[in-house]
Amino acid sequence: QVQLVESGGGSVQAGGSLRLSCVGSGIIISINSMSWYRQAQGKQRELVATIDSGGRTNYADSVKGRFTIARDNAKTTVWLQMNSVKPEDTAVYYCNVDAGFTHRTYWGQGTQVTVSS
To answer: Regarding beta strands 111-116 and 10-13, do their DSSP bridges make them parallel or antiparallel, or are they unpaired?
Structure first.
């Protein structure tokens, strides 16, 4: 059974940094992309950053220049380095993996990030 486990969330003051990690276990064949999403209270889940199998990255406009996504293909691990965080970055952050020809998706359980002003 595939599992994705996030860690690294917590509380931080505005302007600070956090590093989120997501480790996958179980057999995931042919990963297409790994991503971070977030969902703030009362809002829809939104894409934060994506990295594909070739290492190409894509970021939401709201985090460009502040967040960096990276992955280790061999260990099915993805990180999100969050710098210069803002109160509006407060949300539950979810790890996502898109795999195989059918683009099956897997989700982690989420990790809370709270940024105080």
So the answer is: parallel
Would you call 63 helix, strand, or coil by DSSP?
A: helix
Q: What is the pLDDT of residue 75?
A: 72
The candidate with the shortest Cα–Cα distance to 34, out of 113, 101, 95, 104, is 95
Kindly tell me the sign of the dihedral angle through the C-alpha atoms of 67, 60, 78, 116. Answer: positive
**Rounded CA gap, 50 and 6, in Å?**
16
3-state SS, residue 74: helix
pLDDT along the chain (117 residues), means of 10: 93 98 86 95 97 95 98 87 98 95 93 97
Cα dihedral value 6, 68, 73, 4, nearest 10: 10
The secondary structure element, H or E, covering residue 50 is strand 46-52
Q: How many CB atoms lie within 10 A of CB 50?
A: 20
DSSP class of 30: S
Coil vs helix vs strand at 62: helix
